[in-house]
Every structure is written in structure tokens, then in C-alpha cells.
Amino acid sequence: MSVWAVATIALAAGGLGPALYVAARGDALDRLIGLELGGVVATLVLMLLSHGPARSSYLIAPLVLAVLSFAGTLVFTRVLADRP
């Protein structure tokens, strides 16, 4: 097992658990924060999985996920905003 695989497992176990907990509890703003944290952790996990010379094409998925996660956060923030 390589160092990158250990780092990926540690990040997935240590980061996705709290993100899921925050996304499942609390009010709407707390759930949005948990969703954003989960997107960041998932992006980092996919970037760690794509490490290596033979897997450079696997880097496309985390880059697309980063952009879509940001756009999704903007949409949910717009939905949660107070209407005048």
C-alpha cells in the first residue's frame, strides 16, 4: 500500500464522516456547510486517487467536481436567501 493510498483512506474516513454528520443535522445553513465540506473532501479524495504518472486523465473528474460543487453552493445559497 502506497503513501497516497493511506492518505486517501485517512482523508475519506476523517473528512466525509463529519461532513455527513453536519449535512444531516441542524438548520438549513448548517446542512449547506456540510454539503460544501463534503464536496471539498470528495474533490481532494479524487485528486489523491488520480496521483501517478499513468493516471493523469483521472484528474478531469475532480476538477469538474470542484466547479460543480461551487456552482451548486451558489444555487443553494440563492434558495436559502431571505426574500425582500
TrEMBL record:
Pfam name, any one: MrpF_PhaF
Subcellular location: Cell membrane
Membrane topology: Multi-pass membrane protein
Keywords recorded for this protein, A-Z: Cell membrane, Membrane, Transmembrane, Transmembrane helix
InterPro entries assigned: MrpF/PhaF-like (IPR007208)
Major localization class: membrane
Keyword NADP in record: no
Chain ranges passing through the membrane: 29-49, 58-81
Keyword Cell membrane: yes
Name of the molecule in the record: Monovalent cation/H+ antiporter complex subunit F
The species this protein was found in: Microtetraspora fusca
